[in-house]
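We give the entry.
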Amino acid sequence: MSTPSPLEKSDREVEVKLEGSPDLLASLFDLELLATATVRPRAQRLVAAYFDTRDDALDRAGISLRLRKNGARCLMNLKWTLQKSDGFSRGEVEAPFHDDQPDVSIFGPEISERVMRATGGEALVPRFETRVRRRTAELRLSSSVLEIVIDEGEIVASESRVKISECELELKDGDPATLFSFAAQLTMRAGLRLNPSSKSRRGFLLARGEKPAEVRATGLQLETAASIEDAMRAVIQDCLTQFVENWPALLDRDLPESVHQMRVALRRLRAALGLFEKALPGTGFKRFREDAKRAANALGPARDQDVFIALVSEGPLKAFPAEPSFQALLAASSAERLDAYRKARETICAPETSRFVLELQAFLASRGWRNQLGTDDLKKLGRPARSLADEALEQLYRRARKLGKELMAAEPDQRHRLRIILKNLRYASEFFASLYEAAGVRKFAKAAGALQDALGAHNDSVSAARLVAQAAAPSTSPAAGIVMGWCAREITSPEPYLNDQWLAFKSARCFWR
């Protein structure tokens, strides 16, 4: 088991950031939900300068350093990403400071050395400022204490500015599950949405003139001795974090890859919840699977239009570049895409989506499944995660082999079901990969992935045929006919490599055996 670094052992900040219009925030303390909150009578005006090297070495290392002034009072604050981050928790140290240039040595030699390693000894310079008007309250809920902060102002980097209008909920004492549950209630009562981007994240992007990028799944690392419960929390958290961290790239720039990665994250999440629910019936994951499915379905049309436009542009249009009606077909599809992206943004901004994330986060924090399980199943939670992984992978593999019989003659529905099973098999392989020999996992995942991709090309053609039929009009009819024929060829006569990929999958070594 790895030993936590000095930064991992320091204070931990647990915070939820909610975003809303100034009008919504102005009336927030009038809500009955906050009737018992103790509101400070005066607002504060805070100015914070964030420091880094000229090439943002601290930011790349997941560290932020700021000096914040409130009148004559000044604090130096250092925050960092934890090794096992849930997106809501960060390490934090803070101390009074009375200078314009930060000096991290006041935090002690271990933290100072960590910062020095990150910067390589480069000088620290101001990168941007936050200027906010802050209202603060304290709320006691059972045995927990929450600080409620409403910030309105702006982030300033040179000549660039971005508005701040948010409510921060920070756990000062007690149970994190209480924080997440309360935040979920507040999103619904006040019409707010979860904002996964910290001020420092937005500030550094602004300073560099960059936009949010997509966030892909990274290799999940489970300890060799991890229990089923350890794996359950880690896997579900990893999927949920990937989903939420892709929100900014959609909301700020309609990035197609962000929609794709959100759908991947939700598929991974549904696969994980289903896997654990099957192993431990009654864990209470069913409602979260349904929420994840609703969100994925709402994002589906945006992704479908992206895939359709790419398929037409890279296939039929290249083969028939002189056909003028392709312009009308792609224009109609682009209009559908704009509407689909508008609905995708509405889905992410809807309070119900934030509630889903926060309620699942509360369920993870409280280990809510323990309230659902009987004595025997509670004992299973302590079993090695490897034992569950072996069973789950074997079951999924056998289902894939059964569905793949007579693959070349199989109906589209059967191929689609096989593709779903292959996805779940690949996701399970990724979830538990760190418990097995890496080379074996890679070889098997490659074979399963190649077969899944071959089936995916077929599925894309089925979807494209449906979309082109919907978009068909007199002005698009020649191009629509070409695309329909193109798709029909793929649907009725799969490419020869599909059979080769099936044979390669069947012969791949099962690394869990």
Summary: The longest helix spans residues 438-471.
